[in-house]
Design brief:
- There is one protein chain.
- By secondary structure, the chain is α/β, with parallel strands linked by helices.
- Strands 1, 2, 5, 6, 7, 8 and 11 form a 7-stranded mixed sheet that branches. Strands 3-4 form a two-stranded antiparallel ribbon. A two-stranded antiparallel sheet has the order 9-10.
- Strand 6 and strand 7 form a beta hairpin.
- Helix 1 packs parallel to helix 2 and helix 1 runs parallel beside helix 4.
């Protein structure tokens, strides 16, 4: 059983995985390999001159994996909150994974959230009609399920969704640790 399962490995999901894994949390990322970032050319990402979406996704996964995040390519079909104690994730292949918490970082897709019974709301981005309702920290209407990135209503720009994934991870870490989580690396 992982501590945290992230569904989606686009900028929001991989960024959340990076923060969680670096903080020592057992992190599993399940991704269907359908990120809209795979089709992007990016010239407005702070700190990067220009990069293709596939390269950005690859680097993000490598960064999170460096700290122990595990990645599995599968399509999630069911998110079951199992009476509130844990969350069970079922995939198209029939595999079942279990975690204490889940972060939905599913981009423009909210079908899992709807199927799970999470509260949804109207999106404000062009072509994003529905998003997952969250509080200011990323919590959804289910205390075991958090949401980040475009699925949670933030702008589709990679720099913003990546930042939101990190923000939600920091909020979840703060809640788990019982104190504000801050982690900064320094030059040696």
């Amino acid at each position: 059983m992982a501590e945290i399962i992230i569904i989606g490995a686009g900028p929001a999901g991989a960024s959340a995985a990076l923060f969680l894994a670096k903080a020592g949390k057992e992190t599993l990322v399940i991704d269907s390999n359908t990120s809209m970032t795979k089709r992007a050319w990016i010239e407005n990402h702070y700190g990067v001159k220009d990069i293709s979406g596939p390269d950005l996704l690859k680097i993000g996964r490598e960064q999170a994996a460096k700290f122990g995040a595990k990645f599995i390519e599968e399509k999630v079909t069911v998110v079951d909150t199992n009476g509130g104690q844990t969350v069970k994730i079922k995939t198209e292949s029939g595999r079942v994974y279990e975690a204490s918490y889940v972060i939905l970082a599913t981009g423009a897709l909210t079908d899992l959230a709807k199927q799970t019974g999470l509260e949804l709301k109207e999106g404000i981005e062009p072509r994003i009609k529905t998003v997952i309702a969250t509080d200011g920290a990323g919590r959804t209407s289910n205390p075991r399920i958090w949401a980040a990135g475009t699925a949670a209503g933030v702008s589709v720009h990679t720099i913003i969704t990546a930042g939101d994934g990190a923000r939600v991870a920091v909020e979840l870490l703060s809640e788990l640790n019982g104190e504000r989580y801050v982690q900064h690396d320094v030059l040696k």
